[in-house]
Amino acid sequence: MMIELHDVARIYPTPQGPFAALDNVSLTIDAGEMIAVVGASGSGKSTLVNLISGIDRATTGRVVVAGTALATLREGQLSRWRGRHVGIVFQFFQLLPTLTILENVMLPIDFCGTLPAREARVRATELLARVGIADQANKLPAALSGGQQQRAAIARALATDPPIVLADEPTGNLDSTTAAEILALLQELVAAGKTVVTVTHARDLARHADRVVVLADGRIVEVARG
């Protein structure tokens, strides 16, 4: 299994008392699967993805990703582990505005130290070509369309060749044609052996997933074939 959650809860203190963003969730995801996580706002979708990435930590239960029990890692170790094992595609791209597209894609490689600078540049250039925007490499993010920025975000997520890609509403801010192109890119990643977990409201994206995980009130209420 690439991802395992065993009886996982994430509980936050509030003035009204403890709030369970996730409540006793168990889920396993195989290597090479594409999973769509769906549910209403506040159902726990983002919390689930944050636990898988190690951005957040479980209150109780066990999270094992790529063979590592995340609770055993200290914060510094967790950041380094995340850089090598998980690529994250954010809904609003989160590209650094003062860096070129090429520099944005190189950033995870620099952070993790996985390649020398010259090889990092070559790797980033190849990834931009793979997602179809090599000609935008030297532009700042503001000069790109939303679809081009999302392609750049996918390239950045792949910079360290992680086995897992987590995508939070990757088509949420895109027109239907561009959204279809991004979906095709995600499917290519799965075909190449990546494990892809998406948080989405898009029916097309969910329909093309291997499985759809439905959350409500912090619990998994259904797991269905896409």
Derived from helix and strand composition plus strand pairing, the structural class reads alpha/beta
Q: Could you name the ranges where pLDDT drops below 50 across 5 or more consecutive residues?
A: none
Count all strands and give the number: 10
How are the strands ordered across the major sheet?
6-7-8-3-9-10
CA-based gyration radius: 17 Å
Q: What is the succession of H and E elements?
A: EEEHEEHEHHHEHEHEE
Q: Please report the distance between the alpha carbons of the first and last residues.
A: 19 Å
Task: Bin the helical content.
Answer: 25-40%
Task: Give the overall pLDDT as a whole number.
Answer: 93
- Assign an overall shape: globular
Tally of alpha and pi helices: 7
Question: How are the secondary structure elements laid out?
Answer:
Elements: E1 3-12, E2 19-29, E3 34-38, H1 45-53, E4 60-65, E5 68-69, H2 75-85, E6 86-89, H3 101-112, H4 117-130, H5 146-157, E7 164-168, H6 176-191, E8 195-199, H7 203-207, E9 211-216, E10 219-225
Helix pairs in contact: 3-4, 3-5, 4-5
What does this structure look like?
The chain has 226 residues and is α/β, with parallel strands linked by helices. The protein has helices at 45-53, 75-85, 101-112, 117-130, 146-157, 176-191, 203-207; strands spanning 3-12, 19-29, 34-38, 60-65, 68-69, 86-89, 164-168, 195-199, 211-216, 219-225. The chain has a 6-stranded mixed sheet with strand order 6-7-8-3-9-10, with helices on both faces. Strands 2-1-4-5 form a 4-stranded antiparallel sheet, covered by helices on one side. Helix 3 crosses helix 4 (117-130), helix 3 runs parallel beside helix 5 and helix 4 crosses helix 5. The longest helix is centred in the C-terminal third of the chain and has 16 residues, at 176-191.
